[in-house]
Structures are given as C-alpha cells and as structure tokens.
Amino acid sequence: MRSRSSTIRTHRAVTTLAALLAGALALSACGGSDDDKKTGGGASSSAGEKGSGVTLPKLDGASLEVAAVWTGGEQKNFKQVLAEFAQRTGAEVTFVPAQDPIINFLGSKIAGGRPPDVALLPQPGAIKQAVDKKWAKPLGPQARAELAENYTQGWQDIGKVDGTQYGAYYKAANKSLIWYNAKAFENAGATEPTTWQELLTTARAVYDSGVTPFSVGGADGWTLTDWFENVYLSQAGPEKYDRLARHEIKWTDPSVKEALTTLAQIWGEKDYVAGGASGALQTEFPASVTQTFTGGDQPKAAMVYEGDFAQVNIGETKAKVGTDAKVFPFPAVGSAAPVVSGGDAAVVLKDSEAAQALVTFLASPDAATIQAKLGGYLSPNKNVPNSAYPNEVQRTIAKALIASGDDFRFDMSDQAPQAFGGTPGKGEWKALQDFLQNPTDVAGAQARLEKDAAAAYGNGG
C-alpha cells in the first residue's frame, strides 16, 4: 500500500483557509513589483533574512547536477538559487532539464550511469517510486534539522516514506485560484464569483460581451486533473477526496459522476473554452495563461484556472498582477470552497556531502527567500519573510498558506502512482483530455478512469 500523505481531516479546516484566502485577496492592494524585472541582485543579501543564514560546507572542486521539469521563468529563477549555493560553497552546479514523467527520465539517466545528484520531484507518488527503486537516499541530519525548524509537521510528513525523510518540499502551490483579465471583466460588468453558480453567471456575462470565458491548457493533462480535484473536493468533501486519492472508492462512484457532470457545465458549453476542445487540447499551460492577458480588452479568454505559479507566465506579458491580472479563489461547488495544494520536493539520488548540502540549503529560508523575491513562487517554509514576495497578491497567498498550517489537501493526482496520475498520454491525464473532447460521455470517462486506476494501484478499489 502507498503511504498516506498528511492532510487535514475536517471540512471546517478547509473552509477556514478558503475564507482566509478569499478575505485577504479582497483586501489586496492593486499593483506590485514587476516580477520579470527582478534580478539576482537581492539574492546574495538574502542570507541576512535569517540571522547569519544556514551553515554550508566549503565544497571547492565538487560538481552537482540538479534535475527538474521546470521551464521558462521558473527554471531561470531557480538557477539564481543554485548560483547562490555555488557562490557560498564553491561547488559547480548544473541544472538538468527533465521531462514528464520525471521517474522515466531519471530511470534513463540511471540506466546510462549518469543520475543527477538531486532531483525535484513533483509528486509524493514519485518520491515513493524513487525509494522503492532504491534510487532515493535518506536526508542527512542537517537537512532534517532545517526541515524541523522551518516546516510544519504536515509538510515534513509528505516527504517521508515509511517514516524516513527522503524529500524536502522546496516549492508549494495553491492550486485553487482563478486568474482573470480585469479589463475584460470590467467591460462585461462581471464580478468575482464565490460559488459555482455565480461562476457560471460570470462566464455568461463575459461571453455576452464578446469574449470567450475560459482559457484551458488541455495539452498538459495535469491542468485538467486540477480542475477535477477542486470540483470534487468542494462537492464530495475531504473524506471522500482522501478515499478516492487512495483508490478506496472506485472512479465509477456516483460522486465522480457528479463532479464530471459539473465540469461539463463549462467544458461542454459551446464557445466557453478558447479554441474549443480541439484548440484547448493543443494549448500548453504557459500559453493558456499568456493568451488571457494579451490582446488588450479583447483577449482570447477572460479567465484561466491554475495555481499561484501562473504569475511567472503573466510576467511574460505586459499585464501587471493586481491591476491588469487579478485573482479569486476557486468558487465553492458544495458547502465550502476547495483548497488544493501541490509542491516539488528535493530528493538526493547520489549521497554525497555536496548533494546533502544542497538539499539543506533548499530547506532553509535563505534559498526560498531568493526565489520568493523573483515572483511566481510559493514556499511552504514558514520562516520565509512575507515581505520577500514581490506583490500584494503573492504576499496574500503566501500568508494564507503559512497561516493554514497543515490545513490543506494535497493534489490528488500527485498522490497517485505516476502511471495513473502523472504520465502524459496515459491514465487520468488522458482520460480527462478525452472527456474535455467529449464531455457528454461521463460514464465512458468514469470507466476509463477506473480501469487505469485499478491497474496502477494494483487493486479493485
């Protein structure tokens, strides 16, 4: 059986975080720093954010390779973090671009005798697979000490397998946000919704104004799993969410039918998705964001669902977060708004002093503060100063995450075996892409999801 990730156990806690986030976003001031104009100029001073900073060894002559699936601005910003580590230690650090699924990518590297020293794994399921394959090495005492000082127990536990710490969650994500083009909303007389029904009303107002309501990055199947998870968590509740995440109930359950039927109210509505289903399935996530914030008051779509990290892509346009690009929490489908979190954990694959030192650094406020200043990033590290985030919207999201403690639900597909929840063209990604193409076939989607889940989990639900 798979290890159970640490999550909250009451609906009230989810409701509390959603209310906190909604209220805080409502109070957010307009404007903020232009993320893509930030540079590493402030990076070297970040050690001062926590007294003398984390203690690192001298590693002159050591070389490290770090693999992650990050691209674009996210990769560029992370490289500044690695550059700071290199400056402090004397080690040479190389970023290795990986492809999804990262477990397959790492398998090829390991088979060829060239594994990276450290990998950033985007799923708890991938951490467990790396442990099962005997690739991952336990974190050393220094890294564990940084985690104990800077992370809540829940964020530590997600990186554990059978009680042993293998992962340090460097990056978190609030995946319960909808970003919108403020000018398009203004022209349509649309308002920020708090319920699913209000979202449909807002979408109709936008549509009637001549703008397509939603941009969907359907070429990246993980965006569709995130849509489903928010609807399912809010509608079915956290207890069923946990059971479905562990495949203790089948995907043919009536609660899944209800969630898919709800999604079809948007995915199946004629002209509600930019480019239609076919266009969405050819649109990757970054483009789904940028096309929402280009074209002035006539963008390809007025809204795009995804996490706080969408700010990296918004930064590639002329839109300013907090003025041109605004955000509201994913609306409540059931009795409470959903709060779905995700993240990426640093895992040691080659057990050396340098690799352990890098993960220790990534678990410290020093590293996270550098990337926080660059924008489009959220850290679960509770000792990163909120002032490090470059705009009020991001500071609000970060504050809500830290205030929640362990009150969150982790991304369901990321908890699943990677064959089901994290592989392009297969499992849940492919089944939901097929459903986006034909949202009337709820029963067929459920049957495909259950067949693939049963095979991946090795049980019948």
TrEMBL record:
UniProt-annotated stretches for the region Disordered: 32-54
Compositionally biased residues, Low complexity: 44-53
UniProt signal peptide: 1-29
Keywords: Signal, Transport
Keyword Signal: yes
Lineage: superkingdom: Bacteria
InterPro entries cross-referenced by the UniProt entry: Bact_solute-bd_prot1, SBP
Keyword Magnesium carried by entry: no
Family: Belongs to the bacterial solute-binding protein 1 family.
Annotated protein name in UniProt: Sugar ABC transporter substrate-binding protein
Source organism of the structure: Streptomyces shenzhenensis
